[in-house]
Amino acid sequence: MDVANINKLFEENLTVVNLGLESFAENLNNEGVKTVQVQWKPPAGGNMEIAELLDKMDSIKAKVDVDAANKKAAEIINNGKPTVVDISTAGKAIPGMRKNLFLHAGPPVEWERMSGPTRGAVIGGLVYEGLAGTYEEAEKMAASGEIDFEPCHHHATVGPMAGIVTYSMPVWVLENKAYGNKAYATLNEGLGKVLRYGAYGDDVIAKLKWMESDLAPILKAALKLHGELDMKNIIAQILQMGDEGHNRNRAGTSIVIRELAPYLVQLDVEKEKLVKVFEFLNANDHFFLNLSMPSAKCIIDAAAGIEGSTIVTTMARNGTDFGIRMSCTGDQWFTAPAPMVDGLYLPGYSADDAAPDIGDSTITETVGIGGFAMAAAPAIVKFVGGTPKDALNVTTRMYEITETENKIFQIPALDFRGTPTGIDVLKIIETGILPAVNTGIAHKKPGIGMVGAGLVKPPEKCFNDAFKAFVEKYS
Amino acid sequence: MDVANINKLFEENLTVVNLGLESFAENLNNEGVKTVQVQWKPPAGGNMEIAELLDKMDSIKAKVDVDAANKKAAEIINNGKPTVVDISTAGKAIPGMRKNLFLHAGPPVEWERMSGPTRGAVIGGLVYEGLAGTYEEAEKMAASGEIDFEPCHHHATVGPMAGIVTYSMPVWVLENKAYGNKAYATLNEGLGKVLRYGAYGDDVIAKLKWMESDLAPILKAALKLHGELDMKNIIAQILQMGDEGHNRNRAGTSIVIRELAPYLVQLDVEKEKLVKVFEFLNANDHFFLNLSMPSAKCIIDAAAGIEGSTIVTTMARNGTDFGIRMSCTGDQWFTAPAPMVDGLYLPGYSADDAAPDIGDSTITETVGIGGFAMAAAPAIVKFVGGTPKDALNVTTRMYEITETENKIFQIPALDFRGTPTGIDVLKIIETGILPAVNTGIAHKKPGIGMVGAGLVKPPEKCFNDAFKAFVEKYS
Fold it and tell me: φ and ψ at A299, to 5 degrees?
């Protein structure tokens, strides 16, 4: 560029593209110069250790076809065909389940480090199972070592919030018809004082008992008459009806009710019991969450253990730690302290009451629904905060860290574009963009329950550690 | 502007704002010049007669407070509280109903000028009522003068498509709790071969008989146990669930099912009958249309007859004529030939099979739902054609011809902005923008049924004539 051209440049109206510090652009804006701020972070967020490991990627890719491995994982996710095949109990259906085994959400955690809501749900679960007579006794028993604690995720299971699953609890049984693997989740208890938010009073236990004695057997019988539920089809529909399958499930719950209703009324069940079932379902818009979660679980489990694949196969929290797993490293967890949630609080509660991020429901985001499909559910912002524009932006941003666009789960408002699907650890490292998650918020103390809902950023460390393990494995 | 400045102008990159003929902008575009085409039409669309009448508006407004009158109409629409209070029959509930009176959609029309689908529905209705033994006999009777034909709208009633309402048909009874007026509509028959689309075979009649003998009494009894249905609340909800209440009603239908289910199962009814009711409801996503329509009707009827108000209180078609009514001119119709619909056709059908625009369902648009709320229902384009962006644009454009934004009906994707509500004839004349309507398409011959769905532009003449009547009345 010669001097004449440079002079010409200064005669023209400038439009400046700014990378990095936003204050540069702000100064120019103040002078009346048009600027475009690029949302850019240095690779690895400026983390030198990670940046150096990134330099090894060329030599790794010469040995391992990471792109092909991730394509394969994405294809498996897209092919997944989650189907509700039965309702059973945890004891009968879940592999490895036993009476003194309590499953919990998130990565492994021992009693000593357990969060308030998880402890509350364990205490309630012990009384529900009749293993303890009082809540005090239950607390002692939980601390005694008599009870084994293992993640739901180690048993093809997912649990919302505390995610406590005990032997007698009814569970949805799902099968991924494309790959044959199964997944399990309890039935959703509704909102308010419920075990999954760490509440454990007698009303909580009584409802769990009713779910075991009435709700589950009645739904199981209706499901048998109806036949299997094609969850892939139903989830595709709810994305056209303002749900995203994680914190907004009103359409999904409605579809399950209307699908099962003609069969529920065929059963030989006392009228009063049937009325209570319909009333419970109609009063509980989150009923569908415990179907969208195991749907996601059985889709993503088929993509685990692919050599060379950096696709995230688990994101889960226990109120103490946030943990992820990656396809190529199989069962290995990468954890970091669970973050706090930025959200809206129920009347009478504030951020001071909140437990850190908790629950397996982030499994939805791993298959392109939940936070990744928020653009399909703009009304969700009334529950989790923000504006509809934010919801749209969240989805749009997630395309940058995902391997593919979903073939079946589509967003009408984005011209039926497939949802961003298959979270790639490598892309997270390269872009510095973290997966978007929306979630409920539990009280930090045992025995209380839900206090709000909001958005949360997973800890960078989980993804950095997964990346380090990947580099170590393939260097 | 001196010569130096003009020369400077030609040195700069031009951005041209073009009004009027789009070809000017296209030529510039071809030369690489950026252009912005302004969607502008001359006042009254260049119609000299109307333009001259527009000149009288200042003197009219000096005598009549049109703005205040339209504000009052808008307030009445916003205050409306449509509520389902009962299910009855047309003969018992609708004022002025008698055995030889057949109500039809749209403005008045005699047998000789009736469209194919309307004739088909009349023939079916005569056999359904037992007034004729065969379809041939029915056709003769319809032409004989023995049967009186009047618009649904003259009886506080609305009917989708042909809109034929006969004495024995069950009807929803709605009350506008804010103003005490009532509205009526039949129960929706489902899709496929149905009377409202002009089909009249024995299967059509058998279904109508079942609706009379089983469906309506069962729903009536459940409704009585449940209590009144607050339609304002339900319509607000469905706009957050991807429905717009005219051609997309999946969420609305789902909500009605889940609301009534706990009461349906309490009834003393044979299981088989209850099963059939639930199956029918679950298989018919348009069931809610016959609730959104009378909801709109009882909202807007309260805004009729306001001195000086140019708000549209009726838009309706009978497959022959499109007719509107305006608040200040009360019961007077302004009609023009019904236009053809631009839409998507069912397999095996094309535009050659289509009847002109038909049905009272355009009542939804008069209160800010239906076509006016399409931005809330982007998935509707799979049914009526176009893209989600078109759906958004339709709603956005309607703000230019409406008096207010709805206080309760909101569009999440537009940051919960109230839907464009209260169509103003004056604004239509001034802007040249016509109300957006989406609709089903009936076969032009009697006896066949639905062939598609799409978008339609009401004839300009209706609004021009209403405006002329307004000027004449107040000059």
Answer: -70, -50
Residue A265 and residue B274: Cβ atoms within 8 Å? yes
Residues of chain A neighbouring B389 (CB-CB closer than 8 A): 415
- A49-77+296-474 CATH pick, 3.90.1700.10, 3.30.930.10, 3.40.50.2300, 3.40.630.30: 3.90.1700.10
Q: What is the DSSP letter of A231?
A: H
A393 contacts: CB under 8 Å, gap ≥ 6: none
Q: Which residue in A234, A253, A254 has the most chain B C-beta atoms within 10 A of its own C-beta, making it the best mutation to test that interface?
A: A254
**Chain B residues inside the 8 Å CB shell of A262:** 275, 278-279, 282
Cβ within 8 Å, pair B278-A257: no
**Residue B42 Cα, gap to closest chain A Cα (Å):** 33
Q: Are A176 and A299 in contact (CB under 8 A)?
A: yes
Model pLDDT, residue A192 = 81
Which mean pLDDT values do the consecutive 10-residue runs of chain B (475 residues) have?
Answer: 60 64 67 65 78 94 97 98 98 98 98 97 98 98 97 98 98 98 97 92 97 98 98 98 97 98 97 97 97 98 98 98 98 97 92 96 98 96 92 96 98 97 97 94 90 94 98 96
**CA nearest to A13 within chain B:** B12
Task: Among 3.40.50.1980, 3.40.50.720, 1.25.40.10, 3.90.1700.10, name the CATH number for the domain at B49-77+304-474.
Answer: 3.90.1700.10
User: Could A265 and B251 be called an inter-chain contact, meaning their C-beta atoms sit closer than 8 Å?
Assistant: no
Phi first, then psi: what are they for B307, rounded to 5°?
Answer: -55, 125
A254, B259: Cβ pair inside 8 Å? no
Tell me the C-alpha to C-alpha distance, in Å, between residue B249 and each of B240, B293, B380, B383.
12, 11, 10, 12
Lowest mean pLDDT segment, chosen from A55-59, A191-195, B130-134: A191-195
Provide the CB-side half-sphere exposure for B410 (13 A, CA): 15
Instruction: Write the residue in A282, A381, A388 that is nearest to B259 by C-beta.
Output: A282
| Structural domain spans, chain B | 3-40, 49-77+304-474, 82-294
Cβ contacts below 8 Å, chain A against chain B, sum to: 99
The dotted CATH code for A79-294 is 3.90.1710.10
Q: If DSSP codes are grouped into helix, strand and coil, which group holds residue A406?
A: strand
Smallest Cα distance from B277 to chain A, Å: 8
pTM: predicted TM-score of the whole model, two decimal places: 0.91
Q: How far is CA B395 from CA A380, A448, B237, B245, B291, in A?
A: 21, 44, 18, 14, 22
pLDDT value of residue B29: 67
> Could you tell me the CATH superfamily of domain B82-294?
Enterococcus faecalis V583 domain (3.90.1710.10)
